[in-house]
Amino acid sequence: MKTYIVGNWKMNFTVGEASIYLHKLQKRLPNYRDVEVVVAAPSLSLQSLSLQIDRHKMKLGAQNAFYRDFGAFTGEISFEQLRGLVDYAIVGHSERRYIFGEDDKTIQKKVAASVRNKITPILCIGETESERAFGETADVIRDQLTGGLADVSEEDIEKVIIAYEPVWAISSTKAAKLASPDDVSDAVKLIRDSLADIYGKKTAENIAVLFGGSVNPSNAGAYLTVPGVSGLLIGGASLILGEFADIIDTAKRVRA
Ligand code: PEP
To answer: Is 213 left (phi over 0), alpha (psi -120 to 50) or beta?
Structure first.
């Protein structure tokens, strides 16, 4: 399986800044064939970045989209409209869940729309600090996973990526903490076991499961060597070109 390094730029960079970043990153990166590098840029930049991107070196992702294809949905962009521009889309990020009120039903429709439009969804799941404190981690992971994947058939599941992102470890969360490799290992095992229960063991082994939460160049190697982890989803550190590129180099080295 490839190793995935996904940068989530969130609501940062103007169109011009995004273009300069991409230009510099492409110049800096060799063509690592077994590391799939993805930048999830703001919607406004996707059109121009799609013309600029060297798809041998990296791929483009969206951070969100709406599940209906066209229609009276003011302010929204659909997966259908993103088709051809991006290869990936982040779905169900905790900021979408907790700031914009997306529930598992909405996320389920978005995952399905993404698959239908041949865009690989990166389904984010993970417990909050208080859910963790109440011992609800396993239930939250299982509920968000089965909820998000409810419309995904056995035939399509290998086109979906899961990202385990404990909300308490995301750097923009107040008083964020670092997840230990053991925390990540337990959660990823639970995710893989749940996937095996739904889709069978063999299929589950082929599904990429990423980790995200305050990843930086000094801890990336430790997370990448956790059994069952197929890559990383990176927020803050992906905004700093040198750090993001270092993490990509680490992925190449660690997983070679
Ligand atoms: C994220 O928001 O998806 C994320 C992982 O952010 P950070 O790396 O900044 O914790």
So the answer is: left
